[in-house]
Amino acid sequence: MRGKRIGSGAAMLVGALAVTGLALAPSAVAVTPLTATVTANCGLFGGGAATLTATQTGTAATLKLSSTAITAPIPIGANSISSTLTMANSTGAARVFSGAVNPAMATGDPITVGPLNGTVASGDSLNFYGGSLKMVVFGITVTCTANAAQAPGPFVFS
């Protein structure tokens, strides 16, 4: 009878440890690459190299765009640029990321928008080339487009 209790107790302990291990294991969900560069033309804001940074948690994702070549033409307050980033998706419908998140910028400061929130599906392959970034600043819409595909390649979500 005592052997039976030890065996049952050991089995329960192993099961509990397995469940704990699964609960504490890191998520396998990830986006690759984490950053990409693109050359963008943003009209009034200028144009040049920009860096896109991606994150993913399940189906929620964020994208941030920053550039030292694209600059603020006037002083811009924090969180006052309403941005919509549309990314071309080689596996289906385009994905849209939006928000009004930006640091305060003086005239001539580098542009940074995001993180902008969006939803992705496993297997999405997103590229700024074929998409656009629309920024509304003081009622004026500025649209940025890419001249070529981003490098090192599209963001692939898992």
Structure notes:
With 158 residues, the protein is mostly beta strands. The protein has one domain: Immunoglobulin-like (Sandwich), CATH 2.60.40. Helices cover 15% and strands 49% of the residues. About 15% of the residues have low confidence. Strands 1, 2, 3, 4, 5, 6, 7, 8, 9 and 10 form a ten-stranded antiparallel beta sheet that branches.
Architecture per CATH nomenclature, i.e. the level-2 architecture: Sandwich
| SS content category | mainly beta
Shape: globular
Low-pLDDT parts are: 5-28
- Total helical segments: 1
Beta-strand content estimate:
over 45%
Number of domains: 1
Radius of gyration over alpha carbons?
A: 22 Å
Mean pLDDT: 86
Q: Which sequence of SSEs, written as H and E, runs from N to C?
A: HEEEEEEEEEE
Write down the oligomeric state. Answer: single chain
Q: What is the class in the CATH system?
A: Mainly Beta
Terminal CA distance reads 50 Å
The biggest beta sheet reads: 10 strands, antiparallel
Report the CATH topology name: Immunoglobulin-like
- Work out the helicity level: 10-25%
Q: How many strands in all?
A: 10
Salient structural properties:
single chain; 158 residues; mainly beta; Immunoglobulin-like; ten-stranded antiparallel β-sheet; 1 helix; 15% helix; globular; Lipoprotein
Question: Layout of helices and strands, plus pairs?
Answer:
Blueprint: H1 2-24, E1 31-32, E2 35-41, E3 47-57, E4 60-71, E5 82-89, E6 95-99, E7 110-119, E8 125-137, E9 140-146, E10 155-157
Antiparallel strand pairs: 1-10, 2-3, 2-9, 3-4, 4-7, 5-6, 5-8, 8-9, 8-10
